[in-house]
User: What shape does this take?
Amino acid sequence: MIRVVLPTHLRRLAHVDGEVKLEVQGEATRASVLDALEGRYPMLRGTIRDHVTLQRRPFVRFFACERDVSHEPPDAPLPEAVRSGAEPLLVVGAIAGG
Assistant: This one.
C-alpha cells in the first residue's frame, strides 16, 4: 500500500480528505504511483503531469523520505520506506514569485 499526500487543491478536485492509499501493480515507481492515482481519480489526469508526454508539470515537486525526487527518472524505484507504506510520497505545488 502506497501512501500519497496531495496538495489541498488536488485533494478538493479528487474529493478526498487526507492521504490517498493506493495499490500499485508491479514495482513502486513515481510513474506507477501516478498511473494508479490517475486511474483511481481520473479528474487528476493532466494536473500533475502532462496528458501526452507524461512529464512532470512545472511547479510540481515530489518528495520521499525528506528528499526531493522530482528530477529522478520516473521509473526509478521509490525508497523502501515509501514502498512499504511507512512514509508517504508527497506531491507538492512549488511556489514562485518575487
